[in-house]
Amino acid sequence: MKTFLLLIAVAGAAGTCRFPPQLWCSSEEIAIQCKVYQQCKESVWTVKTNAALVEFELYFESLCPDCRNFIKTQLFPTYTKVGSIMNITLVPYGNAREKQSGDRWVFTCQHGEQECIGNLLETCAIHTLKSIDRIMPFIHCMELSEYPLQSVQSCSQQLSVPLDPIMFCYNSTVGNTLEHKMAQKTEALNPPHKYVPWVVLNGVHTEKINDEAARDLLKLVCDTYTGTKPSACTATRAQLTGCAQSDL
Question: Whole-model pTM?
Answer without folding.
Answer: 0.78
